[in-house]
């Protein structure tokens, strides 16, 4: 064997065939007919259908809830939309009052709906917030919405997770779990699901009837309402504590904990989960929002909090200049200026908005700094999780969502 290399499992004949391979291949190429190669490959078409760059959807129906709306988005002709795993989200882009708003929303429908060409997303009122209320007030049936392909890794994985998922939900954080519950009922997913759903009052509960109907149809899904400001015999009272979670842990001890809800809930429940001693890999949380009070974080430079800085943005041949508030992520300033920039998770995690910081400085909270080591070294930032602390110049990628 040349150079003393030994290949396991190969004998002399294999090596001879290997040596003749180029000649055989050349002969096949020489003997081939001169005709065009098919321009459409089924595998490429399937990949495109599963992972489109973006989807142009239409608002087909709006369902009103007490303080939220569910938007049924889909293809007008009913052709299938990109498939998703229950728990994933869509990044939706709206143009409202000359501002471009891109926000991630968990899909609340069953994956089965994809074949019917539609998804459901639910948006809850967020008084004082920039996007949710504008979208709720503005979006009408028939309007067009640009959506990403389904994104995110907040879904059940048989190899990684226990056979039972204990879902801790707060407020509109119920939506990915509603989708999981539908997927189990529809035999698309194969795990047991117990949802501990925290709400202030019984009347605040979102999707109460839908959840009840799923549990009646499917014994693998259980829903426990936990009310902080109300008490009823058929509900738990107080907060989702370690003791409460313990009550619903399956006897075989094979479980994962998934969380989705407001930041205050994460902070509280995280502490309770630590008391249970659950291994980290069995605890999953949906996207967290970027901090609202950045100047209170350790390491934030003194004297910046109320400042407004200049931003120079370079995108290919285009150059834009606008201002950015110190307490808002750079991405929000870009959108306020009416410029379309890539964004999906909006919490520093996915890297989709990755941009080069050419000049100036930004503050990046540690808890939402999802950059790779090399990106930190070479001056890349995620504008969705970076706050300006001086005038800055950045170079952003193309204008897709
Ligand atoms: S949008 Fe995901 S990291 Fe910025």
Query: What does the main sheet amount to?
Result: 6 strands, antiparallel
Strands of the widest sheet, in order across it, are 4-3-6-1-2-5
CATH H-level superfamily title of the largest domain: Nucleotide-binding domain of ferredoxin-NADP reductase (FNR) module
* Unreliable stretches: 1-5
Q: Which structural class is indicated by helix and strand composition?
A: alpha/beta
Report how far the terminal alpha carbons are from each other: 54 Å
Rg of Cα set: 25 Å
Q: Which bin fits the share of residues in helices?
A: 10-25%
> What number of domains?
3
Please state the second-level CATH architecture of the largest domain.
3-Layer(aba) Sandwich
- CATH fold annotation of the largest domain: Rossmann fold
What is the average of the pLDDT values?
A: 90
Number of helices: 9
Which term fits the overall shape? globular
> How many β-strand runs?
19
Task: Give the H and E element order.
Answer: HHEEEEEHEEHEHEEHEHEEEHEEHEEE
The percent range for strand residues is 25-35%
CATH class of the largest domain: Alpha Beta
Ligands, ions, cofactors: FE2/S2 (inorganic) cluster
Characterization of this structure:
The structure is a single chain. This protein is an alpha/beta fold and 401 residues long. The protein folds into three domains: 47-147, Elongation Factor Tu (Ef-tu), domain 3 (Beta Barrel), CATH 2.40.30; 164-285, Nucleotide-binding domain of ferredoxin-NADP reductase (FNR) module (Rossmann fold), CATH 3.40.50.80; 294-395, Ubiquitin-like (UB roll) (Roll). The chain is built from nine helices and 19 strands. It has helices at residues 12-31, 42-50, 132-138, 175-185, 208-217, 242-247, 263-276, 330-336, 373-377; strands spanning 55-64, 68-74, 89-96, 99-106, 118-124, 144-147, 164-170, 192-199, 221-227, 236-237, 255-260, 283-285, 308-315, 318-325, 355-359, 362-363, 380-381, 387-388, 392-395. The strands form four sheets. Strands 4-3-6-1-2-5 form a six-stranded antiparallel beta sheet, covered by helices on one side. Strands 10-9-8-7-11-12 form a six-stranded parallel beta sheet, sandwiched between helices. Strands 14-13-19-15-17 form a five-stranded mixed beta sheet. Helix 4 links the parallel strand 7 and strand 8 (192-199). Helix 4 packs parallel to helix 5 (208-217). The longest helix has 20 residues, at 12-31.
């Amino acid at each position: 064997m040349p150079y003393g290399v030994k290949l396991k499992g190969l004998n002399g004949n294999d090596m001879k065939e290997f040596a003749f391979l180029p000649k055989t291949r050349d002969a096949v190429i020489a003997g081939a007919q001169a005709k065009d190669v098919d321009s459409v490959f089924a595998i490429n078409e399937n990949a495109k259908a599963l992972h489109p760059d973006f989807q142009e959807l239409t608002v087909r129906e709006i369902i009103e809830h007490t303080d939220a709306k569910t938007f049924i988005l889909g293809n007008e002709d009913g052709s299938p939309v990109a498939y998703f795993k229950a728990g994933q989200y869509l990044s939706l882009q709206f143009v409202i009052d000359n501002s471009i708003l891109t926000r991630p929303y968990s899909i609340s429908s069953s994956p089965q709906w994809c074949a019917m060409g539609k998804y459901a997303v639910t948006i809850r009122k967020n008084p004082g917030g920039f996007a949710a209320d504008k979208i709720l007030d503005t979006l009408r049936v028939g309007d067009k919405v640009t959506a990403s392909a389904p994104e995110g890794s907040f879904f059940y994985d048989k190899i990684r997770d226990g056979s039972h998922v204990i879902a801790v939900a707060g407020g509109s954080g119920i939506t990915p779990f509603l989708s999981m519950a539908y997927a189990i009922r529809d035999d698309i997913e194969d795990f047991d699901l117990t949802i501990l759903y925290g709400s202030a009052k019984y009347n605040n509960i979102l999707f109460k009837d839908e959840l009840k109907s799923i549990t009646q149809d499917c014994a693998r899904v259980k829903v426990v309402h936990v009310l902080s400001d109300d008490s009823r015999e058929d509900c738990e009272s107080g907060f989702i504590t370690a003791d409460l979670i313990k009550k619903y842990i399956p006897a075989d001890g094979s479980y994962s904990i998934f969380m989705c809800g407001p930041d205050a809930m994460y902070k509280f429940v995280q502490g309770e989960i630590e008391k249970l001693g659950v291994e980290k890999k069995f605890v999953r949380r949906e996207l967290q929002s970027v901090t609202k009070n950045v100047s209170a974080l350790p390491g934030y430079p003194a004297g910046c909090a109320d400042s407004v800085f200049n931003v120079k943005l370079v995108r290919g041949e285009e150059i834009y200049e606008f201002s950015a508030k110190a307490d808002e992520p750079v991405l929000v300033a870009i959108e306020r200026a009416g410029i379309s920039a890539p964004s999906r998770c909006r919490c520093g995690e996915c890297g989709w908005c990755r941009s080069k910081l050419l000049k100036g400085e930004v503050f990046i909270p540690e808890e939402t700094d999802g950059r790779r080591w090399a990106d930190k070294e070479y001056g890349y930032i995620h504008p969705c999780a970076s706050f300006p602390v001086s005038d800055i110049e950045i170079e952003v990628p193309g204008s897709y969502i």
